UniProtKB/TrEMBL annotation:
The keyword GTP-binding does not apply. This is GNAT family N-acetyltransferase. Keywords: Transferase. Pfam families: Acetyltransf_6 (PF13480). It comes from Flagellimonas nanhaiensis. Residues 152-281 form the BioF2-like acetyltransferase domain. GO terms for molecular function: transferase activity. SUPFAM superfamilies: Acyl-CoA N-acyltransferases (Nat) (SSF55729).
Length: 339
């Protein structure tokens, strides 16, 4: 059996049975990223005691066809009772049938490296492609081993920060507003895309979820209580993430964000998570952001994406000559903006 779920009640019921899930897979999180012309859907497959779910965003192509994409984050399939011996032939057949019925031309999803079996589930269904790496804390390791992986510079900075600053939990509306204001200033400096300018509704949605917890954390000056840095810690069943991190420009040199990374490691460890994702960065291991993150941990996870052309003939017919000639991995190519 395979079907499409588009309502919160059924979506939540399906998620509650999964062996693994992340906050990116939830119905409420998907609603944050859907425009009025888009629809969040969960493709739900069941065969015996095996269940597979594919959360996606359905977009209208304006020609009687649609495509599917993933929300911002690390998504991909979730499941119950799937192991490395799974034969995905029936799933592949059922998935293609329902996609063709729904007139889906292509499917694109960022995958979640902390959820095992995703590549096995998608084997021979389109293709998966490695696009980078993410740094993470192995939360099953003991504190001593984790801290010994901190490089010398990080250990020295943390020692200084613990003498002059402290961690504060933001639990009021005023705290959220302050966090948003500082985070937006950080985005302004980076000239970030408008997509990432999350507002109060984003935090409200996260706070109300039954599938994960979220905490706004600040590094503040011990004497003045002035905010030096901030980060959002989000924890689901087994996976935690540090999101929306920023440092106040005045305190760049003291690197106050390091105190929050260390705090998030300790907090998520107490909650029993197995992984704390620190994320990636432009330029890979040689980029400044990845170097900062790897000063805490040298655990790297491969970040993959999934690309599936369901209707090859329709796909080809939608490409302009400029798009055909473009030397790029952008997918789907018919959405590539050309000069």
């Amino acid at each position: 059996m395979i079907k499409i779920i588009s309502n919160k009640v059924e979506w939540d019921e399906w998620l509650s049975q999964m062996d693994y899930l992340d906050f990116y897979h939830t119905y409420d999180y998907h609603q944050l990223f859907c425009t009025p012309s888009e629809m969040a859907i969960l493709i739900a497959y069941e065969n015996g005691n095996t269940r597979i779910g594919l959360p996606m965003v359905k977009r209208n192509l304006g020609n009687g066809y649609y495509d599917l994409t993933s929300v911002h984050g690390y998504v991909g399939p979730i499941y119950k009772n799937v192991d490395c011996d799974i034969d995905n032939t029936n799933f592949s057949k059922k998935l293609k049938n329902i996609l063709q019925k729904e007139k889906i031309v292509t499917v694109f999803s960022k995958l979640n490296p902390y959820i095992p079996m995703q590549n096995t589930i998608l084997e021979n269904i389109g293709q998966t492609e490695n696009v980078g790496e993410l740094v993470y804390f192995d939360q099953t390791a003991n504190d001593e081993d984790q801290c010994s992986a901190y490089n010398r510079n990080t250990r020295q900075i943390l020692k200084k920060l613990k003498k002059t600053s402290k961690v504060k939990v933001g639990n009021t509306e005023s705290d959220i507003e302050t966090f948003i204001a500082h985070y937006h200033k950080s985005l302004d400096r980076l000239k970030a895309k408008q997509l990432f300018y999350f507002g109060a509704q984003y935090f409200k949605t996260l706070a109300e979820s039954d599938f994960f917890s979220s905490e706004v954390l600040f590094t503040v000056d011990s004497e003045t209580d002035e905010i030096m840095a901030g980060a959002l810690l989000i924890q689901s069943k087994k996976i935690a993430h540090i999101e929306l991190a920023f440092s106040v420009e005045k305190y760049f040199k003291s690197s106050p964000l390091r105190l929050l990374f260390d705090e998030c490691r300790q907090r998520s460890k107490k909650e029993g998570t197995t992984v704390l994702n620190l994320g990636g960065g432009i330029g890979g291991r040689e980029g400044s952001l990845m170097k900062f993150k790897s000063s805490f941990s040298q655990n790297y996870a491969k970040f993959n994406v999934w690309k599936y052309i369901v209707e090859p003939d329709v796909y080809k017919s939608m490409l302009t000559q400029e798009q055909k000639d473009a030397d790029t991995n952008f997918f789907p190519k018919y959405r590539l903006e050309t000069a």
